[in-house]
Amino acid sequence: MPTLTTTLGIQGERPCVGTWDCKDVVHVFGSVNLVTGQLTHHLFESQHAERRRDGLSKTSRMQREFARHIEQVGRTYPADSCLCVVLLVDGANWHRGRVVDEALRANPHVLLYTLPPYSPELQPIEKLWRPLRHDVSHNVLYDAMPRLSAALRRRLREYQRKPYTVLRAVGLLQDLHAP
């Protein structure tokens, strides 16, 4: 489903963006190194038909995928070179639980710091999601979930190749041409 936003159009004609009768979604877990701008991400496609078959709750599925993200961060920043990696998280249910605890035990150098409720402005990566959605899903209808996932992966890889873009998006790098 596209994320709808204002757009330009021909005067007198209403722009049209289609939609599918589909409840499939893609979740993106991401972490930004606030020193280097390195982006670590994990995509999780959640397809409606599959969700009905597996019988797991949304929280259980999201906990499992968040645990995978913790493991990925642990591999990206191994304990022998990084003494402590702090992930800022909100109070969502999937940021805690048995599988998350197991992932944290397997990666003791990765710590979770829970932000206060209703404070997305304190979470740097939140500032990266807006340009990502703008570039990938605003007013665009993909004919299949794999195409949306591919577009997301492509854009996230671009972010990985340009860490200064990530640092600028999260507000840690000022534009040199700004007054």
Number of helices: 6
Number of strands: 4
User: Strands across the major sheet, in which order?
Assistant: 1-2
Helix content: 25-40%
Residue-averaged pLDDT, rounded?
87
Can you walk me through this structure?
Helix content is 39%, strand content 15%. It is of the alpha+beta class. The strands form 2 sheets. It has a two-stranded antiparallel sheet with strand order 1-2. It has a two-stranded parallel sheet with strand order 3-4. The longest helix has 19 residues. It starts with 24 loop residues before the first strand and ends in a 10-residue tail after the last helix.
Blueprint of the fold:
Elements: E1 25-32, E2 39-46, H1 48-54, H2 58-76, E3 85-89, H3 98-106, E4 110-114, H4 126-136, H5 145-161, H6 163-169
Parallel strand pairs: 3-4
Antiparallel strand pairs: 1-2
Helix pairs in contact: 2-3
Fill in the keyword field for this structure.
two-stranded parallel ribbon; two-stranded antiparallel sheet; 179 residues; 4 strands; 6 helices; globular; 15% strand; alpha+beta; 39% helix
Concise account of the structure shown:
This protein has 179 residues and is α+β, with helices and mostly antiparallel strands. It has helices at residues 48-54, 58-76, 98-106, 126-136, 145-161, 163-169; strands spanning 25-32, 39-46, 85-89, 110-114.
